[in-house]
Specification:
Blueprint lengths: L1 H29 L30 E6 L3 E5 L6 H16 L6 E2 L2 H8 L3 E11 H11 L1 H4 L12 E8 L5 E6 L2 E5 L6 H11 L6 E4 L35 E2 L8 E3 L4 E3 L6 E9 L9 H4 L7 E4 L5 E4 L3 E5 L5 E5 L12 H13 L9 E7 L3 E7 L1 E2 L2 E4 L5 E6 L2 E7 L3 E11 L3 H14 L7 E12 L7 E9 L5 E4 L8
Parallel strand pairs: 10-24, 20-24
Antiparallel strand pairs: 1-2, 1-4, 2-8, 3-7, 4-5, 5-6, 6-7, 8-11, 9-10, 12-23, 13-14, 14-15, 15-16, 16-22, 17-18, 18-21, 19-20, 21-22, 24-25, 25-26
Amino acid sequence: MRWREACLDALLVVQVAASLVLSGLLAYRFTPELPVTSRPQVVPVTPAQSAPRADLLQPVLIWAYTETGGYGGVTPGGPEYPVAWQRFREAIRLALATPERPAPVSSLELEAAEAQPAVGADLPLRLPAAELAGLWVRQEPAWLEGRLRPDLWPATPVDRLVIGLGEPGGLYLVGPAGALRLSLPQAARPGMEELAAGLTGPDKVPYRRLQPLAAGGDGPAGEGAPEPGQDGSGGGPVGGDAAAAIRDPGAPAPLRVGPWVLVPDGRPGQSRPVPAVRWRPAGDPRGLLPLFFPDQTVVREVEELGGARIYTDGRRALRVYSTGALEYTESQPREPAAAGPGLPDAVAAVLEFAGSRSLWPAAGVLTGVEETRWRRRLFFGFYRDGLPVLGGRPLLEAIVAGGRVTYLYAAHTLEIGDTDRVVELVPPEAAVAAAHGSRHLAGEARSPAVVHRVHLAWRLEPATLQRLVPVWVVTFREEGPVLVDAESGQVLP
């Protein structure tokens, strides 16, 4: 009897030992690339650093117009840009500190303002005026002294700020659907007049308003066409809907230029150095796991055919691309418990999430916002050599739902290097004509088509992700943007 009990005890010990061995093998199979001896323990997600302070609204262009100096401008990265933007923001602060709310501007007032001295800034994105005010409150609360109520502002889309220095003057918030105006305190005028004079001197970078094509259709104004000031306009811009039509025989709809559409004052054949693209070597992705997974002992690793690796614990997933770019996804209920966050709160959540994990791009700017009832999708980019860098995907993209970042894409290993080649640029008028022609061929042309903005940018070639292409970004009042290869003049898909 004792012999039988001893055998049963021994069998029980063997079963327990076998169970432990099988459990260990099963856990090892779930994470084949992470040896048992080096498996991390259950630890809370530990951010690498605190959230950065970011200036998310740095303009694509800060420009000025004076009757004696014409147009001049500065772009990000230039030595005068930080000072110009700081002084411009100070004037905004003074205008926003008044208790009044912005009032709609008539086309006649806007047309008169265009012909007078002014300082302007073209923002990196278009936002409803109320959300723009909300961002100002969040970024610079000391500016507003508690007087600004973004919830009382209209929803008029805004992507250009203009400080008019004539009469009546003021801070104009301009968008494709119209403009709003705030009074400009007298204390802000001297600084803005000084800035306007400083940006339009003979030694400054010249700009001009977008010109009609020449009468013969063989080139832009400037090649035999009258220069600003020689057409009886005194060098001032053409006003609003009274703007001259760009001749485009191939499209039945007239093509007109909206207010304050400025382009570099270069002639055909102007060359531009193009920087090279580099992807910084990515480190061991396993070092990132503590930043995204609270319990790394249940993380599985899967290798995709394209070379990307996916790490997942069943609720979260981290894809690491061969370039080192990251894509994080966190599962959420189909409908979060609360409505989508306001823009300032969504931006703050992304700054905290990306910045604390060393993924925030240096000098990053907000370039786009998409909103649904429950979520906010935010896009961020950066500038190089004074121009925005565009891509099939933004430098950083995030979705905020329920107060949390549930999706993040970060191309944090992308670097822009030294000059790679030099190209000659087609004039902006030719790019506008090509963009308008593409709209007509696609059946999207309307009457009239009004050009709202034109600016240069770099486009990261989507096929290779290894080459930058200079492009003209043409935005029409009705829609946009349209990308035109600035070297070939062809519209890009």
